[in-house]
Amino acid sequence: MMGAGRLPGAKTAGGGKKTLSLLIKIGITIGIFLVLLAKIDLDAVMVRIAKQDLSLFFLALAVLALHLLIHAWRWKTILETIRSPLPLPRVLRFLSIALFFNQALPTGIGGDAVRIWITNKFGTGISAATNSVMLDRLCHMVGLMIVVALTQPLLAGMVNVDELEWGLPLIILATLGGLAALMALDRTPKDWQRWRPVRAVAYLAADIRRIFLRPPALAKQVFLSLLGHGAMIVSYMVLAKGMSIAIEPLTLLALLPPVMLIAALPISLNGWGVREAAMIGMLAFAGVPAADALSLSLVQGVSVLITRLPGGVVWLLTRVTA
Asked: Domains of the chain: which residue ranges?
């Protein structure tokens, strides 16, 4: 029986390369905020945030809680597809703990590592635990690419920037190419498969094919990913409405997917700073003042953080049976 406490390997998680990576992300985050705050009237930001309607703020929190449930459902279907099923309540508990570590703490221990560790301790095995988390990340990104592709016509009608017109399709094509390459990773000589890392990669490739080459499994992942991204976009819309930011929902639908895509890049601390800069840049095409765009991004980030904090309580109360 193992209680909530120090994670295995915590002594090494904060050292060396991980510490350097964390410091770089913190530096990028702080640097972006310093640049933004030097150019934006902070008083205007605070005034806009103070206008937030509390009823709509709590509605946005409810939508983000729904987003968490959808995420858990998607991960559960992945575990079922790779033949390592877990009940939804347990999946939701493990995911809540992982997202708490991922969002709430500036630590070198990533939420994905926590999720792999806790799922493995439950008994799925390290291979299934690792592959399920990697597949969940992959399905998330593929779903986001689909959202970007679907909203591209709307964006093209609002934004006349050549880089966006060819850059986003290029990213989508690169993602599809990378996905095809991942599915072929087990095409290695049999002699190589006596090495554990090669076998691990081969298992991952087989699990990727189970998801992406089987229409029923792929349809589930696409549906749940689109549902999850849709919930996230709706939360932005509700918060914007609550702060009386002058922007139409359809305009937000067109402009937010690229922001979400950029914010997903692992170059800052949990997306902070990068998300704000991307939000300001994209919403400027709709004539939204920088202070309003920054306000929306900050309140959204805080809202996500609030919905992830209960995972810390779950972690303190959890006992994981090996």
From this structure: 14-156+214-317
